[in-house]
Amino acid sequence: MDQEFEQLAAQLIEAGGKLAAKGMVPATSGNFSARLANGDMAITTSGADKGCLSLQNIMRTNADGESYDRRAPSAETLLHVQIYKQVPDVKAVLHAHSLNATVISQLSPQRVQLANYELLKAFPGINTHDTQIDIPVFGNDQNIPRLAQQVDDYMRAHSPPVAYLIAGHGFYSWGRTLRETLIYVEALEFLFSCELLKRRVTQ
After folding, report:
1. pTM above 0.90, yes or no
2. Domain 3-202: assigned CATH number
């Protein structure tokens, strides 16, 4: 292991602790990765408890998600690969199974629209609340290559969103650093909770 890998692994471990403390990666759910300078990935191993990760739970793969050792990376590694290949400046991907994201993804068959929130300024290129973003929702699918292709097709037809939801599953978000990606994840979770509350009080 080189110094760059160890540094990114430490950041992934820290991210796991933060998201677990917020209840966003229950049981062994979720998966995290960061991209190294040569295109390799540091990614969580399959089945790891994200709230108590250690260096042994972070492994290295090549840019296609292929392991350099006998350990198995996250079952959803190809979803990380797809994001890195489609959005070149992305350096980190976080997948959370938060309560609000899981529920709102089942109530929104195609997308979740977030409009007129001050916290939208957390996302790149937005400097006013007077705007909206769409978070696409994809059907859950145990065939990960097929799901990755669906996401890729969407991103080729639209400007890449800041995140996407998988129905009844959770959401993926990404950014230029792990710190930036954590900000997006926390902002999205807050906004999803706002949308769910609005739906309850307006029914």
Report:
1. yes
2. 3.40.225.10
